[in-house]
Amino acid sequence: MADSDISDNEPTTRTLLRRVLDTEAPRTPRRRQSTRAGVQRTPLGTPFSMRLRSQTKTTAGRQPHRARSIGRLAHIQTRGQLKEQTPRTLLENILLTAPESSMVMPESVVKPVPAPQVVQFSRRESSPGSLELQLPELNASTTLAPGRLTSGRRKKRLRLSEFQQGVDQGLPLSQGPVTEPPGNTGASSLSSSLNLTFATPLLPQSVQRPGLARRPPTRRAVDVGIFLQDLQDTSVATALPGDRTPVATLPTDTVLEDTQPFSQPLIGRSPSVHHSLPYPSLSAERTVSRRTRSSGPGLQNNSPGKPAQFLAGKAEEVDALAMGFPNTSSSTSGEDGLEPLLGGVGEEVEERMEESMSLSEVKEAAGAQASARAEEPEAHTEVAEAEGSWGAIEEKEPEGSSGDKDTEARPELASSTPEFPRARQLEFLEPAPPTSTAVLSSEPLEPLSARLPTRVQTAGPRRRQDPYKMGLSHYAKLFSFYAKMPMEKKALEMVEKCLDKYFQRLCDDLDVFAAHAGRKTVRLEDLELLMRRQGLVTDRVSLHVLVEQHLPLEYRQLLIPCAFSGNTVFPAQ
Amino acid sequence: MAVAATISQRKRIKRKAPRGFLRRVFKRRKPHLRLEASCDLLVHLNCLLFIRRLAEEARTDACKNKCGIIKDQHVLAAAKVMLKKSRG
After folding, report:
1. Contacts of B24 in chain A (CB under 8 A)
2. Entry's InterPro entries (chain B) (predicted)?
3. Disulfide check for A89: which of A69, A83, A368, A384 has CB 3.0–4.6 Å away?
């Protein structure tokens, strides 16, 4: 179909598409006849109106709708008047909806009508006629009569105008762009309004129906400068130390001491963490101290192991950058060291650490890390290391300005800590630096588990308190439910503190009870004894009664032995 | 078994116990100890009862002071009493 005389000077996409459509060989003869018949047939009005409806519903470009309508119409009219959804039709729709370069180009405009049948038609008749004739066939033609004025044939126009009128009457929805041309045609009847372009200009459409107009996607160019700045800020704030990025020197150097030179970066991170988030650092330290306490002087090994576990188990998603991966890898290595370290550590060390921890917590929170360090170098170093290593695990970025202070602390710690942790730390740190570089490089790009690359860094320290705080807040919500009275936020925080103390007491009591029974495992009878001593379980109220009253069914089934079929009891006693 | 059958019917438990949280807390504090299988459920029960009593106490305190809102001093006073009671 060389009729595609799209005599456009510049080879635009539209013209190319047209040419493609034109050159393709559609089912010509059938279509031709059918189109003619369709034009004359009244029932066309209905499908046409349906088409219009579909058109109006779908702006140019909603091909599925058109396809559906096309399909419907195809059902109605067996003849191939309507195009089934083919790539051709899609392209035609595209052409329709895309704005023409010039509105007043009768010949060339007429040509482009995407319908292949139309093209065929146009071959038969001059181009404008094809346009007109195409109207009935075009399923998704955006408008009936939009278009350019074509000089063109009266007879075709007549038919079209009839058609248009029929369409106008039949068309229930008269939506702006679509109805206007028909309206115009109706008014002008035989005027050239019918020969308006099928592809209405985008502007009127957008004016009348802004939602349907195709808007170019608004993409803001990424401001690299701002992005880097944000990176830096977040890195400074979250101790995402920037050896990579030129981060401002961290004002506060945490007490993290590290015997290993490698751990400098780790420690460098923690200072920023502490500095930027004093409160979270407090709770984080608390948790860290707990961890360290529990793990004993496992220090770095334990802390990386524990925080790594913590993090890995907790929120891989929150894990900044690729922390998760190195974390898990390091955690596995750290955990190995945990066991032997745990065995090696004596209880007295734990106690000492506890005291120092509590002290160190306060001090570190206050920022008097240096003083704290002086007073309890070991404890601090442990804590700091724990934190630092924790921070390292998270960020994996070697340090920053706090490196020098860390070196001071490190020798102190080095003296106190055994060599084992040092080896562990080395081992742990080794993967850290290489991974950190990789991580950093991928930091800006890689979503990994982080939801937002830049924001992940801030989530680092938050992660420390989150799991514990979340658990506590879960119970605090229950408190507000049981109280049945409005509460202040401070009261809720107070409740959380009380819960914390309660958990401590609970664990201690269970420990004592189990030790009293010569066991190392806390059993149900220990729990029952505890509740009895608390006055919850009495001679009148048994534990089973309480379980039934307060726990959901699933837990009750797990706790209260019940006989089942087959002479079995679950849970087994 | 019957247990499994009944559990599968209702997969969503209301008022779930944060078992992982409880186990982790216990492990952190007492790493040398072990928790038995369903002990954390009883711990959760204990917490529920503790919180319930604490809330009752706090509500009583607030009502005593003719406050419509529970404030942290009410909670603090109530906690003192409750922690003393739950000494075990």
Report:
1. 467
2. CENP-W, CENP-W/WIP1, Histone-fold
3. A83
CATH number of the CATH domain containing B82: 1.10.20.10
Q: What is the pTM of this model?
A: 0.36
Compute the distance between CA of residue A62 and CA of residue B46 in angstroms, rounded to an integer. Answer: 60
Structure tokens of A571? 């849970």
Give tens-digit pLDDT for A473-523.
Answer: 888 888 888 888 888 888 888 888 888 888 898 899 999 999 999 988 998
Selected for mutation to probe chain B from A475, A477, A541, A547 (highest B CB count within 10 Å) is A475
Q: Which of B29, B42, B68 sits opposite A504 (nearest CB)?
A: B29
Which chain B positions have a beta carbon within 8 Å of A467's beta carbon?
21, 24
Cβ-proximal residues to A502 (8 Å cutoff; 6+ apart), any chain: B47, B50, B83, B86
The number of C-alpha atoms within 13 Å of A393 and in the hemisphere containing its C-beta is 37
Residues 6+ apart with CB under 8 A from A182: A52, A143, A144, A145, A164, A167, A168, A171, A174
**Which residues from B are below 8 Å from A569, CB to CB?**
none
Residue B8: inside a domain: no
Q: Which residues from B are below 8 Å from A495, CB to CB?
A: 51, 54, 75, 79
Among A495, A508, A530, A531, the strongest candidate for a mutation testing the B interface, having the largest count of B CBs within 10 A, is A495
Neighbours of B35 (CB within 10 A): 22
Q: Do B34 and A521 touch (CB under 8 A)?
A: yes
The span from the CA of A482 to the CA of B47, in Å, is 13
Domain total for chain B?
1
Give dist(CA A133, CA A150) in Å, integer: 13
Tell whether B13 is covered by a domain: no
Please choose, from the candidates A180, A111, A97, the residue with its C-alpha nearest in 3D space to the C-alpha of residue A146.
A180
In a domain, B9, yes or no: no
Question: How many helices (H) does chain A have, and how many strands (E)?
Answer: 27, 3
Q: Is residue B49 part of a domain?
A: yes
Q: Is residue A172 exposed (0-12), middle (13-18) or buried (19+ Cβ within 10 Å)? A: exposed
**Helices and strands per DSSP (H, E), number in chain B:** 4, 1
Chain A neighbors of B8, CB-CB under 8 A: none
Q: Give the tens place of pLDDT for each residue, A305-344.
A: 444 444 444 444 444 444 444 444 444 444 444 444 444 4
Mutate to test the interface with B, among A357, A497, A524, A534 (most CBs of B within 10 A): A534
Q: What is the pLDDT of residues A153-184, one digit of tens each?
A: 555 555 666 666 666 666 554 444 444 444 44
ipTM for the assembly: 0.90
DSSP code per residue over A542-564: -HHHHHHHHS-HHHHHHHS-EEE
Give the pairing of strands A568-570 and A562-564: antiparallel
- Sequence-distant (6+) residues with CB within 8 A of A210 are none
CA distance B67 to chain A (A): 10
Whether the link from the prior residue into A201 is cis, omega within 30° of 0, is no
